[in-house]
Amino acid sequence: MSGRTVAYGDTLELRYALRPRGGEDLVSNFDDPEPEIVTLGDGTLAPALEQWLVDLAPGERHVFLLDPWQAFGESQPEMIQTLPRTDLPADMEFTVDQLVEFAMPNGETVAGRILEIGDDAVKVDFNHPLADLAIEFEVEVERILPSPGERQAQRD
To answer: Considering only Cβ atoms within 10 Å of each terminal Cβ, which end of the chain, N or C, has fewer?
Structure first.
């Protein structure tokens, strides 16, 4: 393998784990039979995490200790909103601490954690669920997959 390192736009075979610093894994694919295939910039990984992959060499395992501002940010009070029940689907059941996806007018969805449920309104936190947490991001790039142009050049 060449001495090539990861760059934005690369497609990678990736093993990774995310955990609160010193805590248990929130997500990990180290024990999965196959690594995840991720293309930097396609939205699979949060951009805040993607940046830590740039310039890594395949085959090396790294653990990045990230402060909240380097990972998922600090909570923003304006991201906590009280929604009238009349704006929500009537058949939707809610529980406190439930993570719910809400449809936006533009067709996108946004996740929010239910904080309070009242008779007339629901209080929802739209901050990232990992906001305010110091994170350990453990990664191993197994392989940088050839781009379509590189595959064509290898055939020629």
So the answer is: C
